[in-house]
Amino acid sequence: MTLKTFHFAGVASMNITLGVPRIKEIINASKLINGPIINAPLVANHNERSARIVKARLEKTYLGDVTSVIEEMYSNDSMYLGIHIDMETVQRLQLEVTLDSIKWSIINAPKLKITADQIQIIPRKNRIRVYVDTNLADGEKVLPFYQKLMFLRRVLPGVVIKGLPKAGRTVINKNSKNEYELLVEGYGLLDVMTTDGVVGTHTMPNHIMEAQSVLGIEAARNCIIKEISYTMDSHGLKVDPRHMMLLGDIMCYKGEVLGITRFGIAKMKDSVLMLASFEKTTDHLFDAALYSKRDAIEGVSECIIMGNPANDIGTSAACLVSEVPKLPPRRKVLFY
Protein backbone atom coordinates (compact mmCIF):
# COMPACT_ATOMS: atom_id res chain seq x y z
CA MET A 1 0.00 0.00 0.00
CA THR A 2 1.38 3.41 -0.94
CA LEU A 3 1.95 6.07 1.68
CA LYS A 4 0.18 8.83 -0.26
CA THR A 5 -2.17 8.53 -3.24
CA PHE A 6 -4.56 11.28 -4.26
CA HIS A 7 -6.58 10.07 -7.21
CA PHE A 8 -10.17 8.98 -7.76
CA ALA A 9 -10.34 5.80 -9.83
CA GLY A 10 -11.97 6.42 -13.20
CA VAL A 11 -12.09 10.22 -12.89
CA ALA A 12 -8.78 11.92 -13.55
CA SER A 13 -9.96 15.36 -12.41
CA MET A 14 -11.10 14.20 -8.95
CA ASN A 15 -8.61 13.92 -6.12
CA ILE A 16 -9.21 11.60 -3.18
CA THR A 17 -7.01 10.42 -0.34
CA LEU A 18 -6.01 6.75 -0.58
CA GLY A 19 -3.38 4.52 0.92
CA VAL A 20 -2.18 4.78 4.51
CA PRO A 21 -3.52 8.35 5.07
CA ARG A 22 -7.04 7.22 4.14
CA ILE A 23 -6.91 4.19 6.45
CA LYS A 24 -5.67 6.50 9.20
CA GLU A 25 -8.60 8.89 8.62
CA ILE A 26 -11.12 6.04 8.86
CA ILE A 27 -9.67 4.36 11.94
CA ASN A 28 -9.17 7.64 13.81
CA ALA A 29 -12.72 8.81 12.92
CA SER A 30 -11.45 12.21 11.81
CA LYS A 31 -14.00 15.02 11.80
CA LEU A 32 -12.23 16.83 8.95
CA ILE A 33 -10.85 14.74 6.10
CA ASN A 34 -8.89 15.50 2.95
CA GLY A 35 -11.05 15.23 -0.14
CA PRO A 36 -14.60 14.64 1.12
CA ILE A 37 -16.74 13.36 -1.77
CA ILE A 38 -20.47 12.66 -1.92
CA ASN A 39 -21.63 10.08 -4.46
CA ALA A 40 -25.05 11.19 -5.75
CA PRO A 41 -26.96 8.86 -8.12
CA LEU A 42 -29.40 10.55 -10.49
CA VAL A 43 -33.06 9.90 -11.22
CA ALA A 44 -32.49 10.35 -14.97
CA ASN A 45 -29.21 8.45 -15.03
CA HIS A 46 -29.10 7.93 -18.81
CA ASN A 47 -29.55 11.57 -19.87
CA GLU A 48 -26.46 13.77 -19.93
CA ARG A 49 -28.46 17.00 -20.21
CA SER A 50 -30.42 16.15 -17.07
CA ALA A 51 -27.14 15.40 -15.32
CA ARG A 52 -25.85 18.86 -16.25
CA ILE A 53 -29.02 20.50 -14.89
CA VAL A 54 -28.68 18.71 -11.55
CA LYS A 55 -24.97 19.51 -11.51
CA ALA A 56 -25.80 23.22 -11.85
CA ARG A 57 -28.09 22.94 -8.81
CA LEU A 58 -25.31 21.46 -6.68
CA GLU A 59 -22.11 23.11 -7.86
CA LYS A 60 -21.29 26.48 -6.37
CA THR A 61 -21.51 29.15 -9.10
CA TYR A 62 -20.25 32.69 -8.57
CA LEU A 63 -21.41 35.95 -10.08
CA GLY A 64 -18.06 36.33 -11.83
CA ASP A 65 -18.68 33.08 -13.74
CA VAL A 66 -21.68 34.53 -15.60
CA THR A 67 -20.52 38.14 -15.86
CA SER A 68 -18.99 39.48 -19.07
CA VAL A 69 -18.23 43.07 -18.01
CA ILE A 70 -18.30 45.10 -14.79
CA GLU A 71 -18.29 48.85 -15.48
CA GLU A 72 -17.80 51.83 -13.18
CA MET A 73 -20.30 54.60 -13.86
CA TYR A 74 -20.18 58.10 -12.37
CA SER A 75 -22.65 60.99 -12.42
CA ASN A 76 -23.12 64.24 -10.54
CA ASP A 77 -25.33 62.75 -7.84
CA SER A 78 -24.54 59.00 -7.86
CA MET A 79 -22.10 56.27 -8.77
CA TYR A 80 -22.77 52.63 -9.49
CA LEU A 81 -21.40 49.42 -10.94
CA GLY A 82 -22.91 48.14 -14.18
CA ILE A 83 -22.88 44.32 -14.30
CA HIS A 84 -23.45 42.68 -17.70
CA ILE A 85 -24.86 39.15 -17.34
CA ASP A 86 -23.87 36.75 -20.12
CA MET A 87 -27.10 34.81 -20.73
CA GLU A 88 -25.38 32.48 -23.21
CA THR A 89 -23.10 31.29 -20.42
CA VAL A 90 -26.12 30.84 -18.16
CA GLN A 91 -27.83 28.66 -20.76
CA ARG A 92 -24.66 26.71 -21.53
CA LEU A 93 -24.15 25.88 -17.86
CA GLN A 94 -27.86 24.96 -17.50
CA LEU A 95 -28.20 27.40 -14.60
CA GLU A 96 -31.66 28.01 -13.22
CA VAL A 97 -31.04 31.67 -12.41
CA THR A 98 -32.69 34.93 -13.42
CA LEU A 99 -31.78 38.58 -13.00
CA ASP A 100 -34.12 38.78 -10.02
CA SER A 101 -32.55 35.76 -8.30
CA ILE A 102 -29.08 37.26 -8.87
CA LYS A 103 -30.33 40.49 -7.30
CA TRP A 104 -31.45 38.72 -4.14
CA SER A 105 -28.22 36.74 -4.00
CA ILE A 106 -26.34 40.05 -3.90
CA ILE A 107 -28.69 41.39 -1.20
CA ASN A 108 -28.31 38.27 0.95
CA ALA A 109 -24.53 38.14 0.58
CA PRO A 110 -22.81 38.61 3.95
CA LYS A 111 -20.65 41.66 4.68
CA LEU A 112 -21.93 43.62 1.66
CA LYS A 113 -24.82 45.36 3.45
CA ILE A 114 -26.62 46.14 0.21
CA THR A 115 -30.35 46.88 0.31
CA ALA A 116 -32.95 46.34 -2.39
CA ASP A 117 -33.09 50.10 -3.07
CA GLN A 118 -29.46 50.09 -4.20
CA ILE A 119 -30.00 47.55 -7.02
CA GLN A 120 -31.70 48.27 -10.32
CA ILE A 121 -32.47 45.62 -12.96
CA ILE A 122 -32.51 46.43 -16.69
CA PRO A 123 -34.06 43.32 -18.29
CA ARG A 124 -33.71 44.39 -21.93
CA LYS A 125 -29.93 44.65 -21.73
CA ASN A 126 -29.41 41.88 -19.13
CA ARG A 127 -27.77 44.35 -16.80
CA ILE A 128 -27.79 44.95 -13.08
CA ARG A 129 -26.83 48.27 -11.50
CA VAL A 130 -25.48 48.32 -7.95
CA TYR A 131 -25.49 51.86 -6.54
CA VAL A 132 -23.16 53.05 -3.81
CA ASP A 133 -24.93 54.28 -0.70
CA THR A 134 -23.91 57.91 -0.20
CA ASN A 135 -25.87 58.37 3.02
CA LEU A 136 -23.97 58.03 6.29
CA ALA A 137 -25.64 57.13 9.56
CA ASP A 138 -24.86 58.92 12.82
CA GLY A 139 -21.56 57.74 14.26
CA GLU A 140 -20.54 55.89 11.11
CA LYS A 141 -16.98 56.37 9.95
CA VAL A 142 -16.61 58.44 6.81
CA LEU A 143 -15.33 56.24 4.01
CA PRO A 144 -14.71 57.78 0.60
CA PHE A 145 -17.35 56.69 -1.85
CA TYR A 146 -14.73 55.71 -4.39
CA GLN A 147 -13.28 53.19 -1.94
CA LYS A 148 -16.77 51.77 -1.43
CA LEU A 149 -17.12 51.37 -5.17
CA MET A 150 -13.74 49.61 -5.42
CA PHE A 151 -14.69 47.35 -2.53
CA LEU A 152 -17.89 46.30 -4.30
CA ARG A 153 -16.04 45.72 -7.55
CA ARG A 154 -13.59 43.44 -5.78
CA VAL A 155 -16.16 41.48 -3.76
CA LEU A 156 -19.16 41.16 -6.10
CA PRO A 157 -17.57 38.56 -8.48
CA GLY A 158 -17.29 36.23 -5.48
CA VAL A 159 -21.00 36.30 -4.60
CA VAL A 160 -22.59 32.84 -4.81
CA ILE A 161 -25.64 32.91 -7.07
CA LYS A 162 -26.35 29.16 -7.33
CA GLY A 163 -25.36 25.95 -5.62
CA LEU A 164 -25.01 24.54 -2.14
CA PRO A 165 -23.03 26.59 0.38
CA LYS A 166 -20.80 23.70 1.59
CA ALA A 167 -20.40 21.95 -1.76
CA GLY A 168 -17.52 22.65 -4.09
CA ARG A 169 -16.76 21.27 -7.51
CA THR A 170 -19.15 18.72 -9.03
CA VAL A 171 -18.13 16.21 -11.70
CA ILE A 172 -20.36 14.06 -13.90
CA ASN A 173 -19.13 10.47 -13.84
CA LYS A 174 -20.17 7.39 -15.80
CA ASN A 175 -20.03 4.32 -13.58
CA SER A 176 -19.45 0.68 -14.50
CA LYS A 177 -23.18 0.25 -15.27
CA ASN A 178 -22.95 2.98 -17.93
CA GLU A 179 -25.10 5.28 -15.77
CA TYR A 180 -24.50 8.95 -15.02
CA GLU A 181 -23.84 9.99 -11.42
CA LEU A 182 -22.50 13.09 -9.70
CA LEU A 183 -19.40 13.31 -7.52
CA VAL A 184 -19.66 16.34 -5.24
CA GLU A 185 -16.58 17.65 -3.46
CA GLY A 186 -17.22 19.00 0.03
CA TYR A 187 -19.81 18.50 2.73
CA GLY A 188 -23.57 19.00 2.95
CA LEU A 189 -24.94 15.47 2.61
CA LEU A 190 -28.46 16.45 3.69
CA ASP A 191 -28.64 19.26 1.11
CA VAL A 192 -27.44 16.95 -1.66
CA MET A 193 -29.97 14.25 -0.72
CA THR A 194 -32.89 16.70 -0.86
CA THR A 195 -31.92 18.22 -4.23
CA ASP A 196 -34.34 17.61 -7.09
CA GLY A 197 -33.03 15.00 -9.50
CA VAL A 198 -30.87 13.16 -6.94
CA VAL A 199 -31.80 9.72 -5.58
CA GLY A 200 -31.52 10.58 -1.90
CA THR A 201 -31.92 7.02 -0.63
CA HIS A 202 -28.77 5.90 -2.47
CA THR A 203 -26.63 8.98 -1.83
CA MET A 204 -23.57 8.18 0.29
CA PRO A 205 -20.53 10.20 1.41
CA ASN A 206 -17.02 9.00 2.15
CA HIS A 207 -17.02 11.01 5.39
CA ILE A 208 -17.99 8.69 8.24
CA MET A 209 -18.84 11.37 10.79
CA GLU A 210 -21.22 13.11 8.37
CA ALA A 211 -22.89 9.79 7.59
CA GLN A 212 -23.46 9.29 11.31
CA SER A 213 -24.91 12.77 11.89
CA VAL A 214 -27.32 12.57 8.93
CA LEU A 215 -28.16 8.88 8.47
CA GLY A 216 -27.37 7.30 11.85
CA ILE A 217 -24.92 4.86 13.37
CA GLU A 218 -25.80 1.90 11.13
CA ALA A 219 -25.04 3.95 8.02
CA ALA A 220 -21.74 5.01 9.59
CA ARG A 221 -20.86 1.34 10.19
CA ASN A 222 -21.62 0.46 6.56
CA CYS A 223 -19.58 3.48 5.45
CA ILE A 224 -16.57 2.29 7.46
CA ILE A 225 -16.74 -1.18 5.91
CA LYS A 226 -17.25 0.19 2.39
CA GLU A 227 -14.44 2.75 2.57
CA ILE A 228 -11.88 0.32 4.00
CA SER A 229 -12.84 -2.27 1.39
CA TYR A 230 -12.55 0.32 -1.41
CA THR A 231 -9.15 1.50 -0.18
CA MET A 232 -7.80 -2.03 0.05
CA ASP A 233 -9.17 -3.03 -3.35
CA SER A 234 -7.61 0.07 -4.93
CA HIS A 235 -4.18 -1.29 -4.01
CA GLY A 236 -4.92 -4.89 -4.95
CA LEU A 237 -5.13 -6.09 -1.34
CA LYS A 238 -7.72 -8.70 -0.43
CA VAL A 239 -8.97 -8.64 3.16
CA ASP A 240 -11.58 -10.95 4.64
CA PRO A 241 -14.81 -8.92 5.00
CA ARG A 242 -15.28 -10.27 8.52
CA HIS A 243 -12.23 -8.31 9.71
CA MET A 244 -13.67 -5.06 8.35
CA MET A 245 -17.09 -5.86 9.81
CA LEU A 246 -15.48 -6.50 13.20
CA LEU A 247 -13.70 -3.14 13.02
CA GLY A 248 -16.97 -1.39 12.14
CA ASP A 249 -18.74 -3.10 15.04
CA ILE A 250 -16.02 -2.14 17.53
CA MET A 251 -16.06 1.51 16.43
CA CYS A 252 -19.86 1.82 16.48
CA TYR A 253 -21.17 -0.48 19.23
CA LYS A 254 -21.45 2.38 21.75
CA GLY A 255 -23.98 4.22 19.56
CA GLU A 256 -21.44 6.73 18.25
CA VAL A 257 -18.36 6.45 16.07
CA LEU A 258 -15.30 6.08 18.31
CA GLY A 259 -11.86 6.17 16.74
CA ILE A 260 -9.11 3.73 17.62
CA THR A 261 -7.26 6.41 19.58
CA ARG A 262 -6.63 6.85 23.28
CA PHE A 263 -9.73 9.03 23.53
CA GLY A 264 -11.93 6.52 21.72
CA ILE A 265 -10.61 3.53 23.64
CA ALA A 266 -11.13 5.39 26.93
CA LYS A 267 -14.83 5.62 26.04
CA MET A 268 -15.00 1.97 25.01
CA LYS A 269 -13.54 0.35 28.13
CA ASP A 270 -12.43 1.36 31.63
CA SER A 271 -9.60 -1.16 31.97
CA VAL A 272 -6.47 0.56 33.27
CA LEU A 273 -4.03 -2.00 31.89
CA MET A 274 -5.60 -1.97 28.44
CA LEU A 275 -5.42 1.84 28.26
CA ALA A 276 -1.84 1.77 29.54
CA SER A 277 -0.85 -0.77 26.87
CA PHE A 278 -2.03 1.55 24.08
CA GLU A 279 -0.65 5.06 24.69
CA LYS A 280 0.59 7.22 27.59
CA THR A 281 1.39 4.27 29.82
CA THR A 282 2.75 6.21 32.80
CA ASP A 283 -0.12 8.73 32.79
CA HIS A 284 -2.76 5.99 33.01
CA LEU A 285 -0.88 4.11 35.73
CA PHE A 286 -0.34 7.24 37.84
CA ASP A 287 -4.00 8.25 37.50
CA ALA A 288 -5.10 4.74 38.47
CA ALA A 289 -2.90 4.83 41.58
CA LEU A 290 -4.06 8.34 42.50
CA TYR A 291 -7.78 7.58 42.22
CA SER A 292 -7.53 3.96 43.52
CA LYS A 293 -8.91 2.38 40.37
CA ARG A 294 -9.40 -1.37 40.12
CA ASP A 295 -8.99 -3.68 37.16
CA ALA A 296 -10.87 -6.99 37.03
CA ILE A 297 -8.33 -8.53 34.58
CA GLU A 298 -11.04 -9.82 32.26
CA GLY A 299 -9.93 -8.67 28.81
CA VAL A 300 -7.40 -10.25 26.49
CA SER A 301 -4.79 -7.47 26.88
CA GLU A 302 -4.97 -7.53 30.66
CA CYS A 303 -4.64 -11.32 30.83
CA ILE A 304 -1.61 -11.27 28.52
CA ILE A 305 0.07 -8.55 30.60
CA MET A 306 -0.50 -10.46 33.85
CA GLY A 307 0.42 -13.82 32.33
CA ASN A 308 -3.02 -15.32 32.94
CA PRO A 309 -4.97 -17.49 30.50
CA ALA A 310 -7.64 -15.51 28.65
CA ASN A 311 -10.86 -16.81 30.16
CA ASP A 312 -14.43 -16.05 29.14
CA ILE A 313 -13.41 -15.12 25.61
CA GLY A 314 -15.83 -15.73 22.76
CA THR A 315 -19.35 -17.09 22.83
CA SER A 316 -18.47 -20.59 24.11
CA ALA A 317 -21.09 -21.87 21.68
CA ALA A 318 -18.87 -24.36 19.86
CA CYS A 319 -20.10 -27.95 19.77
CA LEU A 320 -19.56 -31.07 17.68
CA VAL A 321 -22.05 -31.47 14.87
CA SER A 322 -21.40 -35.18 14.26
CA GLU A 323 -20.74 -37.89 16.80
CA VAL A 324 -17.21 -39.13 17.30
CA PRO A 325 -16.88 -42.68 15.94
CA LYS A 326 -16.23 -45.26 18.64
CA LEU A 327 -12.97 -47.18 18.36
CA PRO A 328 -13.15 -50.99 18.38
CA PRO A 329 -11.83 -52.71 21.51
CA ARG A 330 -8.12 -53.36 21.53
CA ARG A 331 -7.05 -56.89 20.71
CA LYS A 332 -4.43 -58.73 22.63
CA VAL A 333 -1.17 -59.21 20.84
CA LEU A 334 -0.28 -62.89 20.43
CA PHE A 335 3.42 -62.49 19.64
CA TYR A 336 5.88 -59.96 20.94
Would you give an account of this structure?
This protein is elongated. The model has no long low-confidence stretch (mean pLDDT 82). The protein has helices at residues 19-28, 48-58, 87-92, 99-107, 145-155, 189-193, 208-215, 217-234, 241-252, 262-268, 272-276, 281-290, 300-306, and strands at 5-6, 17-18, 37-41, 61-62, 67-74, 79-85, 119-122, 127-131, 160-162, 167-174, 180-186, 204-205. 24% of the residues are buried. It is α+β, with helices and mostly antiparallel strands. The chain has a four-stranded antiparallel beta sheet with strand order 10-11-3-12. The protein has a four-stranded antiparallel beta sheet with strand order 5-6-8-7, with helices on one face. It has a two-stranded antiparallel sheet with strand order 1-2. The N and C termini lie far apart (64 Å).
Secondary structure topology:
Elements: E1 5-6, E2 17-18, H1 19-28, E3 37-41, H2 48-58, E4 61-62, E5 67-74, E6 79-85, H3 87-92, H4 99-107, E7 119-122, E8 127-131, H5 145-155, E9 160-162, E10 167-174, E11 180-186, H6 189-193, E12 204-205, H7 208-215, H8 217-234, H9 241-252, H10 262-268, H11 272-276, H12 281-290, H13 300-306
Antiparallel strand pairs: 1-2, 3-11, 3-12, 4-9, 5-6, 6-8, 7-8, 10-11
Helix pairs in contact: 1-8, 7-8, 8-9
